[in-house]
Amino acid sequence: MEAKGRSVTLFHNTIIVTMDPENRVFRDGGIIVEADRIKAIGQSSDVLRDFSAHVDEIIDLHGHILLPGFINSHVHTSQQLARGIADDVDLVTWLHKRIWPYESNMTEEDSYISTLLCGIELIRSGVTCFAEAGGQHVSGMAKAVDLLGLRACLTQSTMDSGEGLPAQWAVHTTDHCIQSQKELYKKYHNTADGRIRIWFGIRQIMNATDQLLLETRHAANELKTGIHMHVAEIPYENQFVMNTREVDHGTVTYLEKIEFLQRNLLAAHSVWLNDAEIGFLSKAGVKVSHCPAAAMRMLGFAPIKEMLDTGVCVSLGTDGAPSNNRMSIVDEMYLASLINKGREVYKKGTTDPTALPADMILKMATANGAKSILWDDEIGSLEVGKKADLVVVNPLSWSMVPVHDCISSLVYCMRSENIDSVMCNGRWIMKNQKILNIDESCLPFEFQG
């Protein structure tokens, strides 16, 4: 037996979708997990022959599908308790009249409970890692992430100017915004066995001074971390930037002008772009998080195919519960393919069923997600030496059978109910559809605490 904390598990008799650079799929695969990392991967017969005598546990997955944990690259975990309070309203009303009043009155305990609830829903859809889009009380988020066993890039919602800010936020200076995030970085970055990273956040350009933008860029570069920002969400935003920043188009044009676009920027939504701006994103190495459901509710058709065609790394996010209601990355994969195929009809006047095929969608939820959050050296694919962030899918149910093409089935047929087990950092966080690190039945009592 291995020393405590270095247990070795062998999985075999499974379809392994690696999402590695060669897009290897093992129809009868085996994989070795030692502690928190992948030690070997290959055909079942080879893995059993070489390792079965030296492992602590052998698990026969009998035809299930094993793939990398999904990465949700844009989600507001502290908005989970606001699900349903802002349906069917425009974005400005959504922010100023519904969400910001809610968020500004949250306590640390509220954020903790909200992130627990959101995290459970993420795990049940196969997510092992998420990028917080910006919320209140990162301390509460970190506590929940640590307990659930998830991996996350946590971000504070940051604004220092503009209309609609609640009184509690309107007093925040640029210096306060920067220093509070630096303190969060110092306290929580690389905690929870390395599963938590702290990023800098800009909520949106309409509530950010140039000083905040530039100091955020400097601080993030200094600390070698990322920046998460909502970008080009609605036409009003672009018009606002044209009127106040004196550029000829909008947010991305202005961010390019002040040299804010860089490889550690994760731009959420990015719906209202022109061709030149897509080129700016590509040239700078900016990553984009595509949130299909939230976009179609309030924002519009994002030019995803054009971004991918020019080399922009595009990943998938759910956004928050008040703008989507469903925190399922499985649903987002299905929607992303259909919406972007449908957009081709709108754009060209003819159908193109080849737009955003299943393999690209799955890449957006795994390898591209890891690249978007600057963690692709350790997660996003199943490769020797990478972290053991795994999802076990049971395709043997009415929603997925028969499986003629496992990649297509994962994107077009799979539902959250097909997610059987989830491992993060070498530890099960859901097994046989049971969340392991928290008793879900106790959650209602925590609301009274």
From TrEMBL:
This is Amidohydrolase-related domain-containing protein. Residues 65-429 form the Amidohydrolase-related domain. PANTHER family: AMIDOHYDROLASE-RELATED DOMAIN-CONTAINING PROTEIN (PTHR43794:SF11), AMINOHYDROLASE SSNA-RELATED (PTHR43794). The keyword Hydrolase applies. It holds the Pfam family Amidohydro_1. Gene3D superfamilies: Metal-dependent hydrolases, Urease, subunit C, domain 1. Keywords: Hydrolase. InterPro entries: Amidohydro-rel, Metal-dep_hydrolase_composite, Metal_Hydrolase, MTA/SAH_deaminase. GO terms for molecular function: hydrolase activity, acting on carbon-nitrogen (but not peptide) bonds. The keyword Hydrolase applies.
